[in-house]
Structure formats: C-alpha cells, structure tokens
Write a structure and sequence with these properties.
This protein is an alpha/beta fold and 512 residues long. Helix content is 55%, strand content 18%. It has 18 helices and 16 strands. The chain has helices spanning 2-89, 99-112, 129-136, 138-154, 183-192, 223-239, 251-269, 313-319, 322-343, 355-359, 363-374, 387-392, 394-405, 423-426, 438-442, 448-463, 476-484, 501-511, and strands spanning 119-126, 160-166, 169-174, 198-200, 203-205, 209-216, 245-247, 275-284, 290-301, 305-307, 348-352, 381-386, 410-416, 433-436, 467-471, 489-491. The strands form 3 sheets. Strands 8-9-11-12-13-14-15-16 form an 8-stranded mixed barrel, surrounded by 4 helices. A 5-stranded mixed beta sheet has the order 2-3-1-6-7, sandwiched between helices. A two-stranded antiparallel sheet has the order 4-5. It binds ligand C2E and calcium ion (CA) (2 copies). Ligand C2E binds at residues 280, 296-297, 308-310, 313, 326, 329, 352, 354, 414-415, 438, 471-474, 491-493, 498. Ligand C2E is lined by residues 280, 296-297, 308-310, 313, 326, 329, 352, 354, 414-415, 438, 471-474, 491-493, 498.
C-alpha cells in the first residue's frame, strides 16, 4: 500500500512536471510570438521612421534651396534698391549728387551739428545759361554743364561736397570750416575756373557765375532755412549785375518778399491798364528842331504812384512778362506815332527792346503785325537795342535786323560805349544810329578823356555811315561840345524830360 502510495505520488509529480513544462512551453511560445510581433512592429516602425527621415531630409533640402533662392532674390532686391537709390540720388547728366542727395546730406549734417562747428554753402548759378540753351540748342547746353562740372571739381578740396541741384545751379557744401573768412579764397578759386572760355560747337564762350554764400548755424539752424537763405543770397548776386557773389544777410528775405509781391502786381498791371508811356524829345543839333521821341514806360502804381522802369523792367524780363508789356509799349507808341504823323509826317519814334523781347523768335512778326495794325510808316520807327544784346549772338542780330530793315524799320545801338564796343562787330551790324551812353556826358566837361571817347565814337560812326545821338545832355556847355564834335542829335533834360503825350505834342508844336 505504502508502495502504491509512493507510486501514485510519483505519477502525479510527473504529471505536474509535464504540465508545468507544457505551460512553460506555451508561455515561451506566446512570448516568442510577442517578441516576433514586437520585432516586426519595431522593424516596420524603423522603416517608417527611415522613410520619415528621408521625407524630412528631402523637405529640409528643398527648404534649404528655397532659402538660398530667397536670399539670392533678397540680395538682388537689395542691389536693385541700392541702384534705385543711387539713380534717385544722382544727376543723370553730370553724375554728381542731385538735389535729393544734397538735401539728405544737409539734413543729416544739421541734425548733428555742434555749436562750435561751422559749415559753408555756396549756391553757384550760371549767368545767362538760358541764352546758350536757346541759341545753341540743348545738347550744347548739356555739354557746357558737363564742362562746368569738370572745372568745378578741380576747385574742390577734401571737405567739399559738390552737387547739381537744378538746371544750371550747383551747390558746394564745406564742412569743418575753421573760419568763415577763408571761404573767400574758395570763392576766388571757383571764379577762377571760369576765367578762360568754354568751347562749344567750335566757338569760344565766356561763362560767368553768380554765387550766393551762407554759413550754418549763423544763417540758418535747419537745412530748409539754410537752403532758402543761400538761394536768396544767389539772387542778390544776380541782381547786383551777375558775375559776382553775395553773402546772405537777413535783410535779403524782406527784399525778396517785396520782389515777389511786385512780380505778382506786375502780372495784373497789364489788364488793369496801369502802364503809361512818356515821351522824351530828340533834337537835331544843327537845326535845333525836334526830330523824334523816345518812348519810355512808367508804371502808374495804385499806391506807389509813378514807378520808373529801372525798378520793374528787370523783373518783367526775369518773369517773361516783358513780352506782353513790350508788345503793349510798341503798339501804344506806334498808335501815338500814327496820330502825330498826321501833322508831323517826319517825326520818328524810338522804342526800347529788351533782351528777351529781341530774342523772342516771333519778334519780326510782332513788329510787322503792329506796323500793319497801326498803319505807321516803318521808316519812322527806330528800335533800340543795347550793344550787349546785339553782340550776344551776332548772327541772329544781323538776320533779325535785316528782316526788319526790309520794310524800312531802323535800329539804334543804345548805351554805346558801356559794353565791348568791338569795331569788328560794329561794322557788321546793320544799325542806323549810335546812342552815346549818358555816363560819358556826366563828366564830359571836366574829364578830357571822356571828351576824347565821345569824339572817337563820333568819328567811328561817321566812317561807318551811322548817325550819332548823345543821351543825357543837361547843359549848354555839353551841347556846344557835341555840336563842335559833329554829333548829329541830342536828347536830355536840357531840352525836355520824358513827358506825357499831351505835353509832348505841345512841345512838338512849339519847337518844330
Ligand atoms: P534808356 O533807354 O537808356 O533811356 C534813357 C534814360 O535816361 C531814361 O530813363 C531817361 O529818362 C534818362 N534820361 C534822359 N535824359 C536824361 C538826362 O539828361 N539826364 C539824366 N540823368 N537822365 C536822362 P528812364 O525813363 O528811367 O528809363 C530807364 C531805362 O529803362 C531806359 O534806359 C531803358 O533801358 C528802360 N526802359 C524804359 N522804357 C522801356 C521800355 O518801354 N521797354 C524796355 N524794354 N525798356 C525800357
Ligand atoms: Ca533807350
Ligand atoms: Ca540809353
């Protein structure tokens, strides 16, 4: 029995053992399966992540190349921007900095200017540039501007900045000025580069400049104020006869405001009929009879009263208003001439032409039309131009005078002796009269050299078959001297001041 019990217990133990073994096997198999599953999962994931990495890598690469593209584009854009800025800040013709560049530069300087620092500014404007442009054409005008730029560059020092800020206007800005008086040297240097002629279309031209000068901070605390003030200084230099320079002064601005006001009043004066003509008699020195009148304009200003031409003709010339004003003068003088010639058919009428009027391409037509409209005899009309206007473009002058001489209009050379008085030119000019400038008459009785000049002019005129008229005759002594010197005609306060038309006709009736 005991045996049997042992036997049975062994059997059970084996069974349990086997069962345990089987169980372990099952567990192992399950684990193995799980491991395999996990492994395959891991492998799959691995594959997935590899693919993802590749995808990321390719995305990264394409992002990188886009970035490269982008930065290339950015650089290009920047370059374009720089080019555009350069273009916007460079004068196309001279390649100098332009007005925008100069203003920005000055803005920056003024913002950081310390109290003890001084900067100088020069506004350089070419005199009569318009004449060159008009007579030679714009391409020669451009050529001149380029030549001027080269010359100005020669006069620049290391602290100077040169810009072209307008058609014929340049700026020099000088930093770190030790002393404003040394600026005079620089101005001289700049004027010097204009001391020899420019060659344009094989001809030589002398060019002058008007220079305005201002200093900061003395003449302006902001760049706007400074630009405005150096500009008014330049205008003053122009008004002082050009080819000169002027330092800014605060009184300039008051004058400038007045000038602008006068210009706007001048504009309205024509339609308001505020202009009148006065007439000054011209005498034959031999017969002592009135041979003609010079028409001289006056402005009957609503508050200032009668204003003399010296105070407004230059403004009318500057603004171009001289064209309509000049037409009015010519028409009015011709109407008057027509009226007087009914009774005095030989009487002449002299009318002044300004530079701009004479250079107007329509001048011949304007004169023809007015002669036709008023019905005057052209032989009794004398147009006065100054020597400097006549010599400015001699070929044009000759052609224009010849056109008008065809119908009998005569020309006089006004203010003779104040300009170049070149013999060579004079003999080519188809004028009929020389008017000796009154400055010679002023001192003729005291100054023997003025007597010589007058006698030489008269001899010269005789040789060229011209009549001579002396202006500004105020005394009998002067009259006597002129008669002895064989002068033909005289005009001056000795006979009559310029007077209104009603007085002029009375004078004519009395003296003729
Ligand atoms: P201008 O053509 O030389 O005219 C002569 C000037 O001398 C006139 O001045 C006249 O009044 C003045 N005068 C005449 N005799 C004497 C004299 O004996 N002594 C003195 N001290 N002066 C005398 P005004 O009328 O003031 O004219 C000045 C200038 O204005 C003229 O000089 C002329 O250049 C210009 N002007 C006058 N009228 C006209 C015009 O209708 N058109 C143009 N474009 N200019 C004109
Ligand atoms: Ca005159
Ligand atoms: Ca004169």
């Amino acid at each position: 029995m005991g045996y049997f019990v042992i036997d049975r217990s062994i059997g059970i133990a084996s069974l349990v053992g086997i069962a345990v073994l089987i169980l372990m096997l099952v567990i192992y198999a399950i684990r193995l399966k799980n491991v395999k599953h996990a492994k395959s999962l891991a492998e799959k994931e691995n594959q997935d992540s590899k693919e993802r990495i590749m995808e990321i890598e390719s995305n990264y690469n394409s992002a990188l190349s886009s970035l490269n593209d982008l930065s290339g584009k950015y650089e290009e854009l920047n370059k374009n921007k720089e080019n555009m800025k350069k273009l916007a800040y460079t004068d196309y013709l001279t390649e100098l900095p332009n007005r925008a560049a100069f203003t920005e530069m000055l803005d920056n300087i003024m913002l950081t200017l310390r109290n003890e620092e001084t900067i100088g500014i020069m506004d350089i404007d070419i005199d009569n540039f318009k004449n060159i442009n008009d007579s030679l054409g714009h391409s020669y005008g451009d050529e001149l501007l380029i030549d001027v730029t080269h010359r100005l560059k020669q006069a620049m020092g290391e602290n100077d900045y040169l810009a072209r800020i307008g058609g014929d206007e340049f700026i020099v800005l000088t930093q770190n000025l030790q002393d404003t008086t040394t600026y005079e040297e620089k101005i001289k240097k700049i004027k010097n580069v204009f001391s020899y002629p420019f060659v344009l279309s094989t001809k030589e031209y002398f060019v002058t400049v008007s220079i305005g000068v201002a200093f900061a901070p003395k003449d302006g605390k902001t760049s706007q104020a400074l630009i405005k003030n150096v500009d008014s200084a330049m205008y003053v230099a122009k008004e002082n006869g050009k080819n000169t320079h002027a330092y800014f002064d605060y009184s300039f601005n008051v004058k400038l405001t007045e000038k602008i006001e006068t210009q706007s009043e001048l504009r309205k004066a024509i339609e308001r009929e505020e202009f009148v003509l006065f007439y000054q008699a011209q005498m034959n020195l031999e017969t002592k009879q009135v041979v003609g009148f010079e028409a001289l304009i006056r402005w009957n200003h609503p508050t200032k009263g009668l204003v003399n031409p010296d105070e407004f003709i230059y403004l009318a010339e500057e603004t171009g208003l001289i064209i309509p004003i000049g037409k009015w003068v010519l028409r009015t003088a011709c109407h008057q001439l027509k009226q007087w010639s009914q009774e005095f058919p030989d009487i002449n009428m002299a009318v002044n032409l300004s530079a701009r009027q004479f250079k107007d391409k329509d001048i011949v037509k304007i004169v023809y039309d007015i002669i036709e409209e008023t019905g005057v005899n052209p032989k009794n009309l004398e147009l006065e131009i100054t020597e400097s206007i006549a010599l400015d473009d001699i070929e044009y002058t000759i052609a224009t005078i010849q056109e008008l001489r065809k119908i009998g209009v005569n020309f006089s050379l006004d203010d003779f002796g104040t300009g170049y008085s070149s013999m060579n030119y004079l003999k080519r000019l188809p004028v009929s009269n020389l008017k000796i400038d009154k400055s010679f008459l002023n001192t003729v009785m005291e100054d023997r050299s003025d007597q010589k000049i007058i006698q030489t002019i008269i001899t010269l005129a005789r040789n060229l078959d011209l009549l001579v008229i002396a202006e500004g005759v105020e005394s009998f002594d002067q009259e006597e001297f002129l008669k002895e010197s064989n002068c033909d005609k005289a005009q001056g306060y000795l006979y009559s001041k310029p007077i209104p038309k009603d007085m002029a006709i009375q004078f004519l009736k009395k003296e003729k």
